[in-house]
Amino acid sequence: MPVPQRRFHGDEELGKKDDDHKPGVKGPMGRAWQQRRLPNGPRRSNLKRIALGFLVVIGFYYFFKNMPTDLEQPRQRPSYVPPSGPNAPASKAVPNRYDFVTKTAEDETPDAPLHNFNGPIKFYQLASTLHGVKTRGSDLVNQNVLFAAASLKSAANLLPIACDTAIRARNYVHFALMGRDDISMDILRSVNGIGNDCNIVFHDARPDFSVQSSDWRMEVSSAAAFKHINDFVNPQATFVDSSGDEETWFSKGLKQRAGSLGRTVIELPENAEQNLMWITLLDSSSLSAWNKVSINIIIHAQPSASGSLIRLLESLKKADFFASSYPPLTIELPHDVDEPSKRYLERFKWPPKGDQSGSLLTLRHRIPQHSLNADESSARFLEGFWPNNPSSSHVLVLSPQVELSPLFYHYLKYTMLEYKYASNNPSAQNLLSLSLDLPSTYLNDTASFTPPSANSTVGGNVITTGTSQFLWQAPNSNAALFFGDKWVELHDFVAESLESQRTLPTPTTLNEKLVSKTYPSWMEHVLRLARARGYWTIYPSFETEDRLATLHNDLYQPPEEYSEEVNAEIDQSDELTADPDHYLSLKHSETSLIKTSILTMLPNKGDLPKVWDMPLLSWDGEQIVVDDFHRQAVNYSNVFRREIGGCGTDDMEKVRVDLLAGDLFCLKDQKT
Ligand SMILES: *[C@@H]1O[C@H](CO)[C@@H](O)[C@H](O)[C@H]1NC(C)=O
Ligand SMILES: *[C@@H]1O[C@H](CO)[C@@H](O)[C@H](O)[C@H]1NC(C)=O
Ligand SMILES: *[C@@H]1O[C@H](CO)[C@@H](O)[C@H](O)[C@H]1NC(C)=O
């Protein structure tokens, strides 16, 4: 993991220059900043301390709130503007480092502040910390993330997560308090058990007269404070509390301004500290993609298989989508929809919790009554999705046999953000898909598959763990997320392949069907593309028997395009008991599903391994090194070009174009 200290040389120069020109920064704040950066072994304060701290904060809060006025440092009272309407030119409030609160003994503060002050906004405390930012805050792309809160309860919810994020050292963590409460930042820190080891940069972003401010003034102030922080810190992601403890004016003001500035806001739900802690393991680049990615779910329902479809939809309904928006869901229905499915779908709502955003459910019904052949079926299936933006719009393919863990979306979003969107991640271009399913057999479905064990790197040391996520060239059709860019390429690849089948003689060596007929026909195309390009799928692995997805074979139906053949063989072999070598996956017993936080279920406490540390398997299960893997892909694509692409031996090798497979085919050139 990158240790931030390494990056400080350039920053320190910049920071120093900055300081030299601007007196006042090298105060006690500057020194505290230096101390915090010292690499003393970070130690996370335990939960008890935080809980205790939280009680103390409430105590302090009420103590200060009801403090006898003669004890309190009297502050200058604003001249109260008659509440005739909003009159604060908020956006003009520029942080001024030379402003100090002038304390004059004047009238008393009323017991319950009236929240009716609407005057111009000044941030007296913000400038000094913002000018002190030394973490490449001026770069548009950097490693800064911000946690922002107005209510003290929300601050207490966020701070442990902020501290963990800072300790992981992938990001520079900033915390901004934007609320009304008159608590000092030091007390906020200490009651929440945030020591110097947490390495958080605190910003006091409260406006002047916050205690007396109207809600409207506070909303404008939150927006303005975010703008100032954004100018100096450029946070790649801003975490706010959405558990219900937060002030409405804050959420509104900050989210609107962040939206207009194009900044990512991550809303942490109530139980974030229990099961969303994987978020602290992501880097700023992944976090900034949080709201930009969209996942579409597509389910290909089969005729008279209502039982499995209903079971899958029920498991989707129970899934936890935390603070993410619900993924749109498309169900492809066969021509004959059976009665139970019809009745179930009449009542089925997606998203399940009625919110204003409207329905995200699409039903597609097929017209042809006859069963489709393999090619028609492949084309039809792939047509079910098209990404509006190939780099951010992806598709989760689910077979109706699958039942999902309520936490599958945690794993999916976590691994997707890590392996597709982390910075310095060139291996992402070979990533075809993410599987939720850990298959029990090879693609030919006649031999059992055992996942490889592997080594992983923890803090620079290589340790051998029993289990590890692994890379496999074989795709998965039961439950897998295909990336938009690869899906677009697949469309082009299948289009050209089908054209070639129509016009060219049957290939000699590549004609063999490698994927079992228990899997849909489009899998064969995906496998060919993966072999020609050297693409892989990341498969999950778990410490226990629990899984993200389990397959139910009790209601198994073969893919329509193969149903006659498969059913004939199944019947012959007497309900799968006679021939142990056929359709082995159908005899696999169901597994239990993950119900607790995924961090506890994944190997290595959920710290995802680097791609290069994962074992790599070629499509037939052979463990292989990356160089050979790519050499095999070159070999395969040469054969493919000749046999299926219709290219002559003397044809020039064509240039590969992003998102297209045209370089593997020469058909069009011959026609023209
Ligand atoms: C794991 O590490 C051990 C020794 O460090 C090595 O012998 C073994 O081949 C490694 N396994 C994999 C899958 O890389
Ligand atoms: C199925 O695939 C496995 C792994 O590649 C292989 O060992 C086995 O021989 C194959 N079975 C058949 C019948 O081809
Ligand atoms: C690639 O093909 C050549 C010739 O057909 C063969 O000698 C070589 O072993 C193949 N390489 C790999 C990695 O399969």
From TrEMBL:
The chain crosses the membrane at residues 46-64. Residues 1-44, 72-93 are annotated as: Disordered. Residues 8-23 have a biased composition (Basic and acidic residues). Signal peptide: none annotated. Keywords: Membrane, Transmembrane, Transmembrane helix. This is Glycosyltransferase 2. It comes from Mollisia scopiformis. The lineage of its organism: Eukaryota, Fungi, Dikarya, Ascomycota, Pezizomycotina.
